[in-house]
Write a structure and sequence with these properties.
The structure holds 3 protein chains of 3 kinds. By secondary structure, chain B is of the alpha/beta class. Chain B is built from 23 helices and 16 strands. The chains are: A alpha+beta, B alpha/beta, C alpha/beta.
Chain lengths: 78, 609, 363
């Protein structure tokens, strides 16, 4: 049985807002969030910090171009 | 004429310097620029020759680049230049802290803002200066100040005068428990001030509270008598409240509004997660991202019971409970320039809501009798009495009131809604208050059914705004929010619709706009803070895109405008003829059952004559 | 009040580590102490390299002068806040007494004239010792310090011989005497005065271009014994060339510079050392209008190494024993130590402070 995460065609984005007191802290938190959520090689696509928080978009690629796409394998099985 | 020396220390890139040079020259400064890759010594030599008021340096910060920048500062100090010249720095990765470490007098972070640069050159308090929460150079504007409220349409004015006379005569000798409680609340507030000063005994307060409780519904009485809270409501703990003091202590640059080329419109958003603490955080984020004002959204049950609770209360449902303590807590953390509206346009506590709002520092009231007594669910007779009293309070306190036109959402045609808004305006003006009508820019059922927006959403919305300019000299504040019923749960689409509607309104020179978050169409939970940021950023960028471009009406829009104008007049004629505004609301003259509007029932039979 | 300035040859050379060490010694000796910085000190990580940085941990009774914007960056509690009227990027500088212990971030005045103003205010509060933490390689603002502690190391250059040579040249510039004669009070122009009272004035306080240097050289070449006063600074390359051109005509000339730090601000102490050696060999003299005293020097083997692959910095070190011995060998007239490699002599004594005072703070 395939996992839902395998059906992600390429990337998963997390759009959120983090309470923090500096841009540095925002970056650290964003990076930690990817790890805490178990997302491989998370990257900060967008981060804007103002005064007491940061608007953040994180991305983790589940399938890269050139990979064997698990979502194709499940389609084949279907 | 002040001289500014511009020094690109980057070996290749000097685009920013070239741009700054042009803008400074246009602003009347003598801007002298040096070529890219200028060395610190060359900059100092030039500064010795021309004795500039300011040196502006640009360079991308990186390892070992810091030493080059600090050497420039050091040489300037050694050469005695810093006795008469101030030095600013900007560039990629430059932060205020880096600027301080490098020894600069000014630091320009991120996108180029000419007003900050010029403030620096003129050595005055700059919007880029680090401030604490509560400190600001921004002023709180008065939306109504530039307007005379002169009517340009004598026919409409005539009908409105008739209606106003009738209403004010009708309301004589009528009162409600809501009004009586509002009066008692005023006395309690006055009494509490005097109690603190030791001028009055606690017995007086207790007696007033007893009288207040007597006029409340049983659930509210149970709260005062046995501290019984409604289901799902809890007290905020002192530790939770105290902890807030540390949240917003970060010094920061002055928050800049969303506006690009004009000071108008002001942008408002609503809050009301249910928890004052969460609300405060949302408001602070909205302020940081450029909002000019916010308004308080309370839960519907709050308005449906006679009497209001007290204390710092939180709950998990939509809308934050109106208590004086909640309102004061929320106001305490706002920036001093943020405009604040406490919503009291429907329900059984409207006069008391205005009293508490005023006591907590509200800048605006919200009063609309026709809408509040139909879409808002309150009995028209009850709200007529309460609403007139609320208008009197607005006049007494000198606080403007806005009039939301959200009855269109039920299916009411805009001309009927606008007739209602005009009646509310005239009533308030007669009593000495200052109104702000809020035509709703929306994809309403009326628009859908009658195909008024089949081709585009621009012409009808422009017509709805333009018609006001033909009728009366008044501020206009589209909302709330604009783009209602165009949003979907998709964040990009939602933010886009908000920004398109908001900026369309701005091309018509409106004074304020209420905007939604990108969670507007999501109903399964409270608005998220990231959703607020989404639309603030979208609106800001859209305003940048369109700049000073103004809209002009197409032929179709002109025709639509004329139609609306004509039908407003017809509607007002019928209401004036009827001679009884309350009856007019019951009978659907300002929005019928066929339009999708039903008179409210909350508070039915509670008017005391 | 004694002001100690902590300066460095580059970022990350160990200024703050040295200052923290000295702070412990001075506090233990019972002196009242005020802390400030001409840069930005006390943050937990370096904002360029992201590597951890030493933090200022302060105790009740100490005094700090920092920008208002930084007061809440640390965990210390304050009382008795006093504005100074000195504005910076991070807000007005406030003098605060520490009420409860914790970390602080110091961001003080960055211009010479503001440093002077702040020192006066701290002296009025009867502070006994003030620390003036430096910033990167900035020196000119440190002329207010009574004594300097200079840090160098691998963050300046990873080659030990280069560090040693640089340190030696730098240190050598501190050993010229003070000029006792009367000079023009005008600090806006390079001034010349011959034995025959012929006067000469350049348009600027400093020399950074060859035309100006040639004008000066021209005048010096036709006057016999004469004095040249440079209130600002001089591009070292141009000075060197001028001296070479003048050659034997340098005999009897006196060159008076404002302060050694004004020369060091130009960043090429080796060239200055060479120029001054040449001058002396030609029977010319070098003086300073005011002196800065170099109490001692420290070396630090640390440097941040950039890794291309991961796009971040890591901490790296050169051989610490070799670094210390090389620099010690090169710098003859000033004590050189590694703060993290004791033992070393009495550092307080080197700063004209003694251990004997016992004074408790009021909290």
């Amino acid at each position: 049985m395939t996992k839902a995460i395998d059906h992600i065609v390429d990337a998963i984005d997390i759009e959120t807002f983090l309470f923090c007191k500096s841009e540095d802290e925002a970056k650290q938190l964003a990076e930690s969030l990817c790890i805490e959520l178990g997302l491989p090689h998370g990257d900060i696509v967008f981060l804007e910090f103002k005064a007491w928080g940061a608007r953040v978009r994180l991305r983790s690629y589940i399938h890269h171009p050139g990979d064997h796409y698990r979502w194709m394998e499940s389609a084949g099985e279907a | 004429m002040k001289t500014v020396l511009l020094a690109p220390l980057d070996p290749v890139h000097d685009n920013a310097i070239k741009l700054i040079k042009r803008k400074l020259t246009e602003a009347g400064y003598e801007a002298v620029s040096m070529p890219p890759g200028t060395s610190p010594e060359e900059v100092i030599q030039k500064a010795l020759e021309i004795k500039p008021s300011v040196i502006l340096v640009s360079r991308t910060l990186g390892y070992k680049v810091a030493e080059i920048l600090s050497q420039l500062v050091d040489l300037a100090d050694a050469a005695g230049i810093r006795d008469y010249t101030r030095i600013g720095v900007g560039g990629m990765a430059i932060t205020k802290e880096a600027g301080a470490e490098l020894g600069f007098d000014g630091c320009f972070v991120g996108e180029l803002k000419m007003n900050e640069l010029i403030d620096f050159i003129e050595d005055r308090v700059t919007s880029g200066e680090i401030l604490r929460s509560g400190e600001s150079v921004r002023k709180k504007p008065d939306i109504t100040a530039p307007y005379s409220y002169k009517f340009y349409d004598p026919v409409i004015e005539g009908y409105l005068n008739q209606i106003v006379e009738q209403v004010l005569s009708w309301v004589q000798n009528k009162t409600t428990k809501g009004i009586e409680r509002a009066k008692i609340r005023s006395e309690i507030l006055e009494c509490e001030n005097e109690f603190i000063e030791g001028n009055v005994s606690s017995t007086t307060r207790d007696e007033l509270l007893k009288r207040y409780i007597a006029d409340c519904d049983p659930e509210i009485q149970a709260f005062y008598q046995s501290k019984q809270l409604p289901t799902g409501v809890r007290w905020l703990e002192k530790t939770e409240i105290d902890r807030m003091a540390n949240l917003f202590d970060t010094p920061h640059a002055e928050f800049v509004g969303l506006q690009h080329t004009n000071s108008k419109p002001l942008f408002f958003s609503q809050y009301g997660t249910g928890c004052p603490i969460m609300d405060i955080y949302h408001i602070k984020v909205a302020e940081a991202w450029g909002i000019d004002g916010v308004f308080h959204f309370d839960p519907s049950w709050n308005a449906q019971k006679e009497g209001l609770l007290q204390g710092c209360l939180t709950h998990e449902h939509d809308g934050t409970i109106i208590t004086l303590e909640n309102l004061k807590l929320i106001r305490h953390y706002m920036e001093p320039y943020t405009l604040w509206n406490v919503r009291g346009h429907r329900g059984l506590n409207t006069p008391e809501t205005q009293i508490l709002g005023h006591a907590a520092g509200a800048d605006l009231f919200k009063i609309n009798i026709p809408y509040g007594s139909t879409g808002g669910g309150t009995d028209p007779k009850r709200l007529m009495v309460d609403g007139i009293y609320s208008l009197m309070l607005a006049a007494q306190f000198g606080i403007p009131y806005d009039i939301p036109g959200n009855d269109e959402l039920s299916g009411v045609p805009p001309y009927k809604t606008f007739a209602g808004l005009l009646i509310m305006m005239a009533l308030g003006l007669k009593l000495g208050a200052r109104p702000i009508p809020k035509p709703l820019l929306c994809y309403s059922p009326y628009m859908t059914i009658h195909g008024k927006m089949d081709d585009n959403m621009i012409e009808m919305n422009l017509a709805k705004l333009a018609v006001w300019r033909d009728i009366v000299d008044t501020p206009i504040w589209p909302g709330e929010p604009v783009g209602f019923m165009t949003h979907t749960p998709d964040r990009v689409q939602s933010a886009l619709q908000t920004s398109l509607h908001a900026t369309l309104a701005s091309t018509m020179g409106v004074d304020a706009v209420t905007i939604a978050s990108s969670d507007e169409a999501y109903s399964k939970g409270p608005i998220s803070v990231q959703a607020r940021v989404d639309t603030l950023r979208a609106v800001k960028d859209q305003l940048r895109f369109q700049g000073s471009v103004k809209a002009s009406l197409t032929t179709t829009a002109e025709t639509l405008k004329e139609e609306i104008h004509e039908k407003i007049t017809e509607t007002l004629a019928v209401v004036a003829q009827r001679g009884d505004l309350t009856a007019s609301i019951y009978e659907g003259l300002l929005g019928s059952q066929e339009d999708g509007l039903y008179p409210g029932r909350v508070g039915s039979g509670t008017v005391i004559e | 009040m004694i002001t100690l300035g902590f300066v460095g040859t580059a970022k990350n050379t160990g200024k703050t580590t040295t200052a923290l060490h000295m702070m412990k010694l001075i506090v233990a000796s019972g002196y009242s102490i005020a802390l400030t910085s001409i840069g930005y000190d006390g943050e937990s990580t370096d904002h360029i390299t992201g590597l951890p940085k030493p933090r200022y941990f302060v105790e009740p009774g100490m005094v700090i002068a920092t920008a208002e914007g930084c007061l809440n960056y640390g965990s210390a509690g304050y009382s008795n806040l006093q504005p100074t009227g000195i504005k910076t990027i991070l807000g007005e500088i406030m003098i605060a007494t520490i009420g409860s212990p914790g970390n602080v971030v110091l961001a003080g005045p960055n211009r010479k004239m503001d440093v002077s103003r702040l020192m006066s205010q701290l002296a009025e509060r009867e502070m006994e010792v003030t620390f003036l933490d430096g910033a990167l390689n900035r020196l000119a603002a440190m002329t207010e310090a009574d004594g300097l502690i200079l840090s160098t190391g691998a963050a300046y250059d990873q080659r030990i011989p280069v560090i040693a040579r640089h340190a030696q040249a730098l240190e050598s510039l501190f050993h010229f005497p003070k000029h006792d004669g009367s000079l023009y009070s005008d600090d806006n122009h390079v001034l010349g005065c011959s034995e025959k009272s012929e006067k000469f004035e350049l348009p600027y306080s400093s020399v950074f271009d060859s035309n100006t240097a040639e004008l000066l050289a021209g005048w010096l070449s036709i006057t016999g014994d004469s004095l040249c006063y440079v209130p600002g600074t001089f591009a070292p390359g141009l000075f060197y060339e001028m001296c070479q051109k003048l050659g034997d005509r340098l005999q009897g000339k006196q060159f008076v510079f404002r302060n050694p730090l004004h020369l060091l601000a130009t960043g090429q102490p080796e060239l200055w050392q060479e120029s001054f050696s040449y001058l002396v060999s030609k029977s010319a003299q070098v003086f300073y209008r005011s002196l800065s005293h170099l109490n001692f020097m420290t070396v630090n083997p640390f440097y941040p190494k950039y890794l291309q692959k991961t796009a971040n910095y890591i901490a790296e070190y050169v051989d610490k024993k070799e670094l210390l011995s090389s620099v010690k060998e090169s710098v003859k007239n000033t004590l050189v130590i590694d703060i993290l490699q004791p033992p070393y002599p009495d550092l307080l004594e080197l700063c004209n402070l003694d251990h004997k005072r016992k004074k408790t703070y009021e909290s």
